[in-house]
């Protein structure tokens, strides 16, 4: 027979389980569209404050004046392939910042060989060089997504060697019922899709491959003699799984990008953020295919996924729960190296010999400037 204490413990445990899927108040609502459209952002100020503390940009190192005519890093140091156009001072400043952004515990030796910084034998140095090129590509070539805010190494790494949010291709799973068949990539509660049973790999089709995301049907059924209807529930589930990832990554709900009166419509019915997201998915796809995948053989086996693929980026890699990475902190503008190769300032032109005499004081005469 259960005691009163046991019954109380059982009731408390049951209540805790029932409330596990609920969020403790307060809940706030911000209207983003016209009244009656149900376009509202729902958020919790308490959890938002915690999230804000996790998305604080670090202090910016004092900028250095690039004096015209000073030597470039590529002329002073050996094997500088990406940042050679920087001045020696700016090069050192940038290296110091990258160390704090990516390897604050290990320091310079996370990427470099002690006593021979030109050595490329450490794989992390090869990766870092490619990542610098990727960052420059984002800031200079994808302003349609990052605007003038841009990104730095810190946007993704946040002081960690490996960004917190990355993804690999999942291994093939057996069916949920324990049978021998394939589970067709779904019906497993997965974190990637909000612990739902939606397809648990919403990344490969869209952030690596170029599968169509929009599957809205224009006909009820595939009629005889017509093209097959892709607008099935199965296809919609893949799209919806990606939408859940987007929502969790940015800390927003559907109306951040969509008008609830016409989810599929563009033009005046869509929010400006939807266009930004459209470019973002193409940006992520390009970065994964042109910068990450080519590094597959550079990484050691322990840094690869269960199927042997390299770590890749998705929305959460940069956003990490914030609708704008670091809530819009514009770090990149303080570091010229984060953009396309920097052009050194022109050295002052030499004064022609014929005109030089006017700057030379007469013998025995000292000129005093009033300025």
* Distance between the ends: 99 Å
What is the mean pLDDT? 82
Which runs of at least 5 residues are low in confidence (pLDDT < 50)?
A: 348-371
Q: What is the CATH-assigned architecture of the largest domain? A: Orthogonal Bundle
Class per helix and strand makeup? mainly alpha
Structural Rg: 28 Å
Number of strands: 2
How many strands, what sense, and barrel or not for the largest sheet?
Answer: 2 strands, antiparallel
| Highest-level CATH class of the largest domain | Mainly Alpha
Strand order of the largest sheet: 1-2
Shape: globular
Q: How does this structure look, described?
A:
This protein has 12 helices and 2 strands, in the order αββααααααααααα. The chain is mainly α. It has a two-stranded antiparallel ribbon with strand order 1-2. Helix 5 runs antiparallel to helix 10 (272-292). It starts with a helix and ends in a 15-residue tail after the last helix.
What's a concise summary of this model?
This protein is mostly helical and 371 residues long. It contains 12 helices and 2 strands. The chain has 3 domains: 25-54, no CATH class; 58-164 and 320-346, Orthogonal Bundle (Photosynthetic Reaction Center, subunit C, domain 2), CATH 1.10.468; 167-215 and 230-317, Photosynthetic Reaction Center, subunit C, domain 2 (Orthogonal Bundle), CATH 1.10.468.10.
């Amino acid at each position: 027979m259960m005691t009163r204490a046991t019954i109380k413990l059982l009731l408390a445990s049951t209540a805790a389980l029932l409330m596990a899927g609920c969020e403790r108040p307060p809940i706030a609502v911000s209207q983003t569209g016209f009244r009656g459209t149900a376009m509202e952002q729902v958020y919790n100020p308490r959890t938002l404050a915690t999230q804000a503390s996790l998305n604080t940009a670090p202090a910016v190192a004092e900028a250095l004046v690039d004096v015209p005519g000073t030597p470039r890093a590529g002329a002073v140091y050996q094997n500088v392939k990406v940042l050679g156009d920087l001045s020696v001072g700016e090069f050192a400043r940038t290296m110091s910042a990258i160390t704090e952004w990516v390897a604050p515990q290990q320091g310079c030796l996370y990427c470099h060989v002690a006593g021979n910084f030109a050595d490329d034998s450490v794989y992390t140095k090869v990766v870092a060089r490619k990542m610098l090129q990727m960052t420059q590509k984002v800031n200079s070539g994808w302003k349609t997504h990052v605007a003038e805010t841009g990104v730095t190494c810190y946007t993704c790494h946040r002081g960690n060697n490996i960004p917190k949010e990355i993804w690999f291709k999942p291994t093939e799973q057996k069916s949920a019922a324990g049978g021998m068949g394939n589970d067709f990539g779904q019906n497993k509660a997965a974190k990637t899709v909000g612990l739902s049973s939606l397809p648990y790999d919403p990344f490969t089709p869209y952030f690596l491959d170029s599968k169509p995301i929009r599957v809205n049907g224009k006909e009820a059924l595939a009629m005889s003699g017509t093209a097959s209807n892709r607008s099935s529930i199965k296809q919609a589930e893949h799209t919806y799984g990606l939408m859940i990832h987007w929502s969790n990554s940015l800390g927003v709900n559907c109306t951040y990008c969509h008008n609830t009166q016409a989810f599929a419509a563009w033009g005046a019915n869509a929010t400006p953020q939807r266009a930004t997201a459209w470019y973002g998915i193409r940006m992520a796809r390009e970065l994964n295919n042109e910068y990450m995948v080519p590094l597959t053989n550079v990484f050691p086996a322990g840094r690869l996924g269960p199927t042997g693929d390299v770590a890749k980026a998705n929305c959460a890699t940069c956003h990490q729960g914030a609708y704008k990475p670091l809530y819009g902190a514009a770090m990149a503008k303080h570091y010229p190296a984060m953009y396309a190769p920097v052009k050194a300032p022109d050295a002052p032109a030499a004064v022609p010999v014929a005109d030089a005499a006017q700057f030379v004081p007469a013998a025995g005469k000292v000129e005093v400037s009033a300025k």
